[in-house]
Amino acid sequence: MTNGLRGGIDLGGAKVQAVVVDQEHRPLGTARGATPREGGPPAIAEAMTQALGEAARDAGVELSALQGVGACSPGDVDEATGVVTNAANLNGWAGVSFPLAEELGRRLGTTVRVGNDVNMATLGEFRLGAAKPYDSVLGVFWGTGVGGGLILDGKPWTGRGGAGEIGHTVVERHGRRCPCGNHGCMEAYAGRGAMERAAREAHEHGRKTRLFKLMEERGRDRLTSGLWERALDHGDKVAEELMDDAVDALGTAIGSAVNLLDVPAVVLGGGMGIRFAPRVRDDLQRHMLEHLFNKDDPPALLVAELGDLGGAIGAALLVLEGQGSDAAAPAPAT
Amino acid sequence: MTNGLRGGIDLGGAKVQAVVVDQEHRPLGTARGATPREGGPPAIAEAMTQALGEAARDAGVELSALQGVGACSPGDVDEATGVVTNAANLNGWAGVSFPLAEELGRRLGTTVRVGNDVNMATLGEFRLGAAKPYDSVLGVFWGTGVGGGLILDGKPWTGRGGAGEIGHTVVERHGRRCPCGNHGCMEAYAGRGAMERAAREAHEHGRKTRLFKLMEERGRDRLTSGLWERALDHGDKVAEELMDDAVDALGTAIGSAVNLLDVPAVVLGGGMGIRFAPRVRDDLQRHMLEHLFNKDDPPALLVAELGDLGGAIGAALLVLEGQGSDAAAPAPAT
């Protein structure tokens, strides 16, 4: 006797995206809010609650009509308990554990399950998006950092809870320092954050670039993917070089991962991935192929189809799938 | 009414190792032969047959008393059909398919199953050796090249048949050419074959090294792992530098693999791995840790326990486990 409506909330470093979906996973209502930069985890949980409330109003339904809510978060997510630890990019959450599922459940008056953000986005693409035809997939989410998710033989592979860190595949063992502190990680070349630092260094060393002028003109405090796109459209050499290097690093790390796992498909997502896929997909494929041990049968290189809503729609799957760690399990009756 | 005796044959580039094991996987008899350098796959199948015959005599049993035989081979192994394709290092087998299981079965008068060599060695360590306490493991077999095998949640992970190529994890994206033709693979720094080439180049460029003098004195045509050990014992600088670089590359690639898969254990095997583990294990651990994203809970770094017999004992497991691709399946009655 359920209407099959579910809520999904994607907690990101900059924004909270909420969605209400129907039985066919179609978004009936959406809402977006800024991730609070003060107040710590309780303020963030409140912003997530507000966003889902708005999405429900947008869909024209009551929160109490939802069958359940799934959320996804950065950091170390214990999917069994819904506790999120060390979501280092979020205010007040570095080195801290917070019972996110319980807090959201109390505020929303419903059962909430919480999963890891890139795992949920990968699951969304696997179940509903670009990777639907495949039984295994590597998800690569290219944004400020580069996250990864794995589905092997229909089931999320999370290892001991920390698998999927393709951004920290080494591409140059004595190379550039990564935001994580190690050297030569793919993210040190491909992450939007690392690209911005490299652009700033080039600028400080006298290289001409429009990037920071564009940033000022637009009143932004960071080089967004949109600003990178504008600079590339203007033929900015620094932007071109850094983008080429980022795509080289991405393709190299994907090649290494495919050599190890031999998955039939790779899905590229994330803010940078979705924006730049049309422009860089061929180069990415070329760099991946350069490093494949077996070049005869490369994996399909796909682009995420669920777009900005992928994390939230993927998270809403948690309501149907029980534990996020076992996507193949049938849904318990709720 | 079976005695539980099984045969195992490990086909390598230089040698064939055969074993007869009892129900407890203990070797009752062993034999070793050279891998034929002419005559192609039929001659190689005959040498494998001879070696198993000798192992049976060594064990004091008739071949007809064996419950079955498992074999393992380099190249692309179709475990369902026992056909081996493109075992490029073997005489007459490059680009060629050969029904190895069928040919061995005809010669031996018993059912033969064939698996991939590193997968079987990994399975052996997982079921019977160093990785017994774990439910997932990455096997790293360091020899002339560097092969890898994966067991995830108790089952071999072979992807579309070609998984496990950790030797072709990139460690320097614009780096040294690998025997596989790509650039910057770990094997290009760590494989015994690549190390020999690098030593030869250093020697030709005027670096002093005892390596090639030792090779002549011992009447060898290649730098065996034993020769590397002697050179290191003599404090040979070229050997030390190349070994340090090899261990750095191995640790880097293992770190990348652990970041992606978060397995609880890594087993180091292979001729080089077993010989040099006591000497390099700490450095290997250090290089792996340098590249781990999560340094709090590194995987156990284990050394293969089944030694030279690991491949053959692992292959003999195929008799019990049905398809090599599903180690968790119960044995069918035979």
How does this structure look, described?
The structure is a homodimer of 334-residue chains. Chain A has 334 residues and is an alpha/beta fold. The first copy, chain A, has 2 domains: 6-115 and 309-321, ATPase, nucleotide binding domain (Nucleotidyltransferase, domain 5), CATH 3.30.420; 130-304, Nucleotidyltransferase, domain 5 (2-Layer Sandwich). Helix content of chain A is 40%, strand content 19%. Chain A has 10 helices and 13 strands. In chain A, the strands form 3 sheets. The first copy, chain A, has a 5-stranded mixed sheet. A 5-stranded mixed sheet of chain A has the order 11-10-9-12-13. In chain A, a hairpin with a 5-residue loop joins β2 and β3 (27-34). In chain A, α1 (40-59) packs across α2 (100-108), α3 crosses α10 and α5 runs antiparallel to α8. Chain A is globular, with a radius of gyration of 20 Å. Chain A starts with 5 loop residues before the first strand and ends in a 13-residue tail after the last helix. Mean pLDDT of chain A is 93; it is low at 323-334. Chains A and B meet through β10 and α8 of A and β10 and α8 of B.
**Span between termini of chain A:** 10 Å
**Total domain modules of chain A:** 2
The level-1 CATH class of the largest domain in chain A = Alpha Beta
- β-strand percent of chain A reads 15-25%
Roughly what is the average pLDDT of chain A, rounded to an integer?
A: 93
Helix content of chain A: 25-40%
What is the alpha-carbon Rg of chain A in Å? 20 Å
Counted beta strands of chain A: 13
